[in-house]
Here is the input.
Amino acid sequence: MSTLDLARWQFALTSINHFFFVPVTIGLAFLTALLQTAWYRHRQSEYLRLTRFFGTLLVINVAVGVVTGLVQEFEFGMNWSAYSRLVGDIFGAPLAMEGLIAFFLESTFLGLWIFGWDRLSRRVHLLTIWAVAFGTVASAAFIMAANSWMQHPVGYVINKATGRPQLNDIWAVLTNPVFGWGYLHVLLASLVTAAAVMLAVSAWQLRKGAHEGFGFSMRLSLVVGVPAMILAMFVGSELGVIEARYQPMKIAAAEAQWKTCQPCSFSLFQIGGGNDDKTPTQIIEIPHLLSLLATNSWNGKVIGLNPLQAQYQRRYGPGYYVPNVFIQYWSMRVMAYSAGLILLLGLWGLWLIRRKRLATSRVFLTTAVWAVILPFLMNTAGWLLTESGRQPWIVQGIALTRNGVSPSVSTTELVISLVVFGLLYTGLGVVDAVLMLRYARRELAPGPAQAEQAAAAADRDAALPSMLY
Amino acid sequence: MTLVSLWFGLIAVVWTGFFVLEGFDFGVGMLHGVIGKDEPGRRAAINTIGPLWDGNEVWLITAGAAMFAAFPGWYATMFSGLYLALVVLLAALIARGISFEYRGKRDSATWRRSWDGMLTGGSLVAPLLIGVGLGDLLHGLPINGAGEYTGTFWNLLQPYGLFTGVTLVTICVTHGATFIALKTTGQVRDRGLRVARRSAPVTGLLVLGFVIWTHAIAGKGVAPNPVEIVAVLAVFAAAWLAHEHREGWAFAATTIAMAASIASIFTELYPRVMVSSTSPAFDLTIHNTASGSYSLKVMTIVVAIFLPVVLAYTAWTYYVFRRRLSDADFRPQLAETGAADPAGISPTAGGA
Here is the structure.
């Protein structure tokens, strides 16, 4: 394997891993803030217990999200130094802004929230969790602005002396249509992910007959999660149209569409396919659906990979510009089908709420627990679709991935780092999973406000500090 | 002052801020087993930095991102050149970062001991490696005309860099000890002062050697650099103040010592950012690695608005958590006074 392949594997594995924790953090910070607001307004002790219960899960997640995020930031320079040298002028700015504007806010106020229960007034303490939630959302904005620039570079000129792109319009970078829609898409997917986690934990608790407070968190997760899922689908479809405009290869590859079509159908699945098999057997084709997804019109035209390849060669010179079609085709479907299943589950839950049978339907509770895997599949597939679909470019139309890799890093060094990160992330994953499961299965512990009544009855588990180190 | 010089200064400030703040976190991490003799003592020590360390670590993230944005050529060469060292640094920071969060999440002595080991080790390795890296910038590394690193891992480990790393570790230890003394009462405070008293003179000698070596290696003439004199004086002042049990002033002194030591590296480095040991013609400087002026202007505006905000809420956090902790706060048998708090949220329910 070449250093390029190793560097790509490492970046893919570390960023996919990082994004297991990111959406949970973004969504759960918001949901925890909602729970605490409910407690602030209604002063019901079960809201406080739920806040602290899900807040603990949030804190466990943030710890891993922060340290894996540090790896991401360092990796640009470590593995992609040629890329960093080339585009740091533009790409570095949003990362620096993320640190200064978002990350300080998130980390500092999380510390205040965890340790500030008895140091801050109720109102100020509530504000700290909202500051955390705002920090996570702002953080995602800068990262998405940077990523969107790689998908559709805007607001720059090429410096004639150095041959490097230079920022000349920050406003254009921040109003990049890929950024606007992509960012919204990520935020909604994060809400869905955290809602699914909250739903699964609440369902598990209710199934074993735990505190009925979990009925509230379950309803909250459905009320937030279902609209978020529906919106995420609409925003995602709009994002598809925009990407089809700027990155036509990405969308054509997602349907393994080698020839130009009009109108275009969407196949439910296919047998065979890939860059070497241009005639896969496509099963159950839904007419007009690809036209709709890619162009927003019933009879829209989608240019095939073959004519696009010819077009790109004329424009950029000899080379192979088709992304991995197998990954594109299947990541599109895994994303869409997971989203569909999540939506069905959510609608089922809402229907049960209406029938007042939410807490007693054992089939639903069991399904909801296992369905927690779906949003993670959906997110990973979504990122594969977007990032693998950008290939062979590291910045669409400006630089190829193979020219972005660090020239000074040897294969041996890459193998060592892959092994170290592999072991480290596996360890992290195991510890995080163990703790999440452990805390997700705990009973609702009384909060400090109910301390007096509960002191005598405090069992051993509750006597353990859940927030302090 | 030109924009590129301003940004070199800002990056030096961010690195200094990182070492001043995270420096005592590293110190507490290294010392928590020594100063906290039993579990309540260890918890008291760790909880002095509990609400603070995560925000402090963001200074490192910001330092990296600011280098990326303002001096992409510097960031690219340094981070790819120091490749394996950074892999180990990241491993140390990961182990350390999650050990805070996870050590108390299970009631088992083995579980806690494992995380304590990672906390101590990670807190030692991180400043050591960053110190080696910063020393390398000034000492010089094999860098060719294209600005690419041409050495191997072993080129990173030259004597000056290693000495810088060791010196920074000892400053962190003394800084952490004065911080613990300032933030605790009772025997934890006494032990913090004792460690500070013993480590400060050793640190002072190392800092003395470090500033002489730094000044010599930079080759900027005989006249001493004022910040280097300040660094040495501040460490010895800390030793005397710790001896006098004036931990507040001792902590102020170690803060100055840390800031002045980091500042010496950057003042001697300027206007270079990475010295090339291959040829002075290949030195990376603020001019041949910087971003365009538009990009720097945009970021200057962002910094002018948000840095004061960050400093304000960081200061407020330190104010909120100003109260001293004690190992007694974490002793279960004193639960009568802490009984109002079965969830253990308030460590000082009976104190203060």
User: Anything to note?
Assistant: Strands of chain A lie at 156-158, 165-167, 266-271, 281-286, 393-395, 399-400. Chain A touches chain B through 89 residues (CB under 8 Å). Residues 46 and 316 of chain A are 62 Å apart (CA to CA). The first strand of chain A starts at residue 156 and ends at 158.
